[in-house]
């Protein structure tokens, strides 16, 4: 209440530290009591997973507008560079820690790691108004635990049958999309009417509600027999090695071509996600409300593209041509972002960006059709491992390019008459060039392969890597079993083009 009402005497640093210390004490007591006595409400179900995902990303979506403001106020000279470094460190830590958390979740249970990942992912939220420097430092370090999405998918796999899993994963993904489509607009409205302090307070309360829900309502999904059998079992480095599955990339030409395509296309996409809304605010001069509407519109169009349009394309032109079409839309989108300097150009490019979102589902389907059933985990793990690596490299690369070309100062290819940059977004233009190379590589990917992909790989080495917020099961989870004829290595969300 004091944070949301700055007129109340709350001026000195000591008061803020006392408030923060008391807040942490309350959280500690709740965590201790909940872990010791809480067994959840009812039987574990997909509904529990849906609520957890919605609350977490709703809380962060509310902060879209305040975060852009605080980022610019904290780093006025190097806003894009610092944003890229912060998001890059977070992405790399997520990539490195995801396999270890996956292996440990098989030993200690899903509920404990749901609590840990949600708590540490949301911990930076109240620091936004207390200390911006600590806030951005906490965001970077929280990457080590920002794998809630992967733990959720392992939880869903525990509580559903194989024929139900595809629908359940689709429901979780739709909930995630709905939270990010609605929350930025709500946050922008609250910020405009009542100020950023209230938005931070509401986001903090939503995050606390998520933590309390896990403590009090979410039951453990991993059967007790499995936990007892694995308790105390050593965790090998192979299970915790994030590069384990990617070492097999060069063993098959088809997989090699697909992995190169994914790397060259997703690297600029990851960088775009980390900096685009800041770019709209600082360079294109979008208002907070306009950015919120932009997120909602592009999000809805992306959902339509990945469901209805993707299904039609896959049935009519095939997997490979769908991948090529998606890459073509991505080239056009990034080039438009790079050269566009007017608001209407951003809106048009946003519609094209929604169409480019069909690329990765089409790539996943292409991989699944090219691999044997007992190699699905291996080849999908290669793809998602590369995406996880891009989540760390892409933001840092974009931030560095923005800094090198001094986008804030607009000194890159200046028009002398209008003092306006001919290329407002150099990183987007360079990203478009990398996707052109990805398009050329994808031309050589065979539509179908007669020989099994990665047939020489040992069936026991089917552990999957999970990047931050990537829809794949965790390595070491019960879906990642070594049985060569088991269907548990399938990722139904990546197999079902309708979802």
TrEMBL record:
Signal peptide: none annotated. It comes from the Eukaryota. GO terms for cellular component: membrane. The chain crosses the membrane at residues 19-37, 49-68, 80-101, 108-127, 133-156, 168-192, 198-218, 255-280, 286-310, 322-339, 345-367, 388-405, 425-445. Residues 477-491 have a biased composition (Acidic residues). Residues 470-499 are annotated as: Disordered. Pfam families: MFS_1. Keywords: Membrane, Transmembrane, Transmembrane helix, Transport. It is a multi-pass membrane protein. Residues 45-450 form the Major facilitator superfamily (MFS) profile domain. InterPro entries: MFS (IPR011701), MFS_dom (IPR020846), MFS_trans_sf (IPR036259), Sugar_transporter_CS (IPR005829), Tet-R_TetA/multi-R_MdtG-like (IPR001958). This is Major facilitator superfamily (MFS) profile domain-containing protein. It is found in: Membrane. GO terms for molecular function: transmembrane transporter activity. PANTHER family: HIPPOCAMPUS ABUNDANT TRANSCRIPT-LIKE PROTEIN 1 (PTHR23504:SF32), MAJOR FACILITATOR SUPERFAMILY DOMAIN-CONTAINING PROTEIN 10 (PTHR23504). Belongs to the major facilitator superfamily. Its main location: membrane.
């Amino acid at each position: 209440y004091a944070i949301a009402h700055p007129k109340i005497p709350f001026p000195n640093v000591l008061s803020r530290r006392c408030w923060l210390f008391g807040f942490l004490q309350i959280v500690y007591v709740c965590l201790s009591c909940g872990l010791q006595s809480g067994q959840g409400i009812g039987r574990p179900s997909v509904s529990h997973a849906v609520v957890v995902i919605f609350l977490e990303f709703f809380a962060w979506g509310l902060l879209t507008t305040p975060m852009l403001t605080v980022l610019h106020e904290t780093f006025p000279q190097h806003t894009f560079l610092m944003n890229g470094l912060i998001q890059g460190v977070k992405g790399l830590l997520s990539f490195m820690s995801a396999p270890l958390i996956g292996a440990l979740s098989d030993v200690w249970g899903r509920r404990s790691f749901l609590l840990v990942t949600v708590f540490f992912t949301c911990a930076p939220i109240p620091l936004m108004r207390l200390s911006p420097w600590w806030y951005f430092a906490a965001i970077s370090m929280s990457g080590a635990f920002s794998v809630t999405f992967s733990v959720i998918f392992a939880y869903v796999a525990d509580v559903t049958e194989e024929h139900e899993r595809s629908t359940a994963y689709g429901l979780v993904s739709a909930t995630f999309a709905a939270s990010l489509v609605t929350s930025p607009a709500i946050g922008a409205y609250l910020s405009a009417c009542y100020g950023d302090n209230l938005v931070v307070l509401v986001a903090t309360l939503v995050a606390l509600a998520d933590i309390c829900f896990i403590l009090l309502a979410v039951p453990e999904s991993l059967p007790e027999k499995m936990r007892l059998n694995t308790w105390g079992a050593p965790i090998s480095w192979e299970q915790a090695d994030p590069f384990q599955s990617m070492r097999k990339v060069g063993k098959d030409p088809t997989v090699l071509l697909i992995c190169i395509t994914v790397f060259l296309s997703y690297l600029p996409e990851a960088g775009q996600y980390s900096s685009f809304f800041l770019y709209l605010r600082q360079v294109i001069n979008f208002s907070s409300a306009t950015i919120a509407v932009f997120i909602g519109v592009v999000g809805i169009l992306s959902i339509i593209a990945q469901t209805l349009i993707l299904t039609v394309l896959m049935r009519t032109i095939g997997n490979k041509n769908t991948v090529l079409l998606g890459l073509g839309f991505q080239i056009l989108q990034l080039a438009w972002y790079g050269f566009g300097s007017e608001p209407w150009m951003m809106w048009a490019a946003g519609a094209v960006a929604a169409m480019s979102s069909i690329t990765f589902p089409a790539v996943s389907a292409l991989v699944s059709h090219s691999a044997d059933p007992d190699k699905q985990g291996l080849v999908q793990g290669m793809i998602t491992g590369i995406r996880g690596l891009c989540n760390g490299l892409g933001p840092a690369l974009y931030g560095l390019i923005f800094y090198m070309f001094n986008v804030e100062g607009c000194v890159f290819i200046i028009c002398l008459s209008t003092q306006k940059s001919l290329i407002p977004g150099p990183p987007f233009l360079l990203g478009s060039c990398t996707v052109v190379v990805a398009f050329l590589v994808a031309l050589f990917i065979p539509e179908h392969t007669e020989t099994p992909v990665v047939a020489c790989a040992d069936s026991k080495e089917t552990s999957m890597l999970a990047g931050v917020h990537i829809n794949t099961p965790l390595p070491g989870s019960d879906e990642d079993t070594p049985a060569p004829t088991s269907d548990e290595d399938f990722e139904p969300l990546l197999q079902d083009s309708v979802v």
